[in-house]
Specification:
D-tyrosyl-trna(Tyr) Deacylase, Chain: A, five-stranded mixed β-sheet, 158 residues, 37% strand, alpha/beta, 3 helices
Length: 158
Amino acid sequence: MGRVGEGAMRAVVQRVARASVTVDGAVVSSIENGLLVLLGIEDADGSEDIEWLSRKITNLRIFNDADGVMNRSLLEVNGDTIVVSQFTLHAATKKGNRPSYIKAAKPDRAIPLYGQFIQKLEACLGKKVGTGVFGADMKVELVNDGPVTIVIDTKRKE
C-alpha cells in the first residue's frame, strides 16, 4: 500500500526511564529504559510512512553516550519500546473549542496499519514491541527521561 493522498503518520516519541499501559486495571505493557511512542494514523498513510517512521525511530540518536551526550540510538542501547495508537494526534483545533478528528483513520484502516507498523518496528529492533489495546480506555504512565520528547510527522519529515 502506498500513499493514497496527503496524509501524515504522526508520532510523539518520548525517551523513558520506565513506562506502562494499563487497561481495565491490568498492565498490558511495561518497559524500562526505552521509548514510548504515541502513534496517530490518517487514511492516506501507507507502507512508505511505516518504513520511514520505523527506521527513523529505531535510529534516532537520543540516548546518552558515556560522555552524557545524546549520541546513541534505541538499537545501540538495546532499549525497549511501547507503541500506543492515539487518534487524537490528528486533532484539528482551528475552529471552535471542540477538536475535530476527521483526519484520523477509522479503525478498519488504522488497525491494520498499526499492526504493520508494530511488525516493521519489531523487525528493525530484532525484538518484541509492547503495545496498548487499540480503541480501549488506556492509562499510560511514564517517567520521561531528560525530558526528551520528539514529534515526528511523515509528511514533513521533520
